[in-house]
Amino acid sequence: MSASLHDLATADSLLVVSDFDGTIAGFSTDAYDVPVNPEAVIALQELAALPNTHVAVLSGRHLEGLHKVCHLQPPVMFSGSHGAESDVDGVELTEEMAAKLSDIEDRLAPLIAAQPLAFVEAKPFQRVLHVAKLATSDDAAAKQLLARAVALDHAGMSMIVGKNIVEFSVANVNKGTWIAATIERLQPSRALFLGDDTTDEDGFLALRPQDLGVKVGEGETAATMRIADTAAVGKLFSELLEQRRLSLD
């Protein structure tokens, strides 16, 4: 890990992109009361203040919701809905997209009618079935509900299965397309991306050979390195900050 961090720290220009939930913050049954890692937040804010260093938070949360829980300040960039919403640019919702979202919401409604611990979140470009609360009391029922959602007809929409969620999207973007576009726009010498979920795999695949993808936690991954948890994320960012400061002196 140290050698790769050294390569990043000494790069002429650097892009640091991090997922939020499961990476900078832990999980909670209350989506707006998650334990945020202060070490990670402080290090990212200070990295963003360094010359030729760009920092972004790239999340599946919708942009407004992301700002409510992640209080990093400019010049840190924010992108929500897996890259469909951004402080820099974003996707425009068409009438056709809105109709598809309404249709899948109607299809999901009967599935959760008898499950008060499950709910459908309406994001600008997605509808997301959440079963985290249900899973804490009846994991089998949660898995069955997810399976029924996956089996729904969702023609014309993409579907992502993550940790206790199934997400249906009308936006033809993902974390990989956002990272690729941001690398093209900023032209960093090297880039770093950290994420923990299956929704982050597109991001790892979009990285170039000179970049570094870091998987947080368990599971199959296209990332080239792995760390244990959110505490390790904070330590990684702090080490990167220290090394980059030294390289820029």
UniProtKB/TrEMBL annotation:
The keyword Metal-binding applies. Removes the phosphate from trehalose 6-phosphate to produce free trehalose. Its cofactor is Mg(2+). Keywords: Hydrolase, Magnesium, Metal-binding. GO terms for molecular function: metal ion binding; trehalose-phosphatase activity. Pfam families: Trehalose_PPase. InterPro entries: HAD-like_sf, HAD-SF_hydro_IIB, HAD_sf, Trehalose_PPase. The gene is otsB. It catalyses: alpha,alpha-trehalose 6-phosphate + H2O = alpha,alpha-trehalose + phosphate. Its EC number is 3.1.3.12. This is Trehalose 6-phosphate phosphatase. GO terms for biological process: trehalose biosynthetic process.
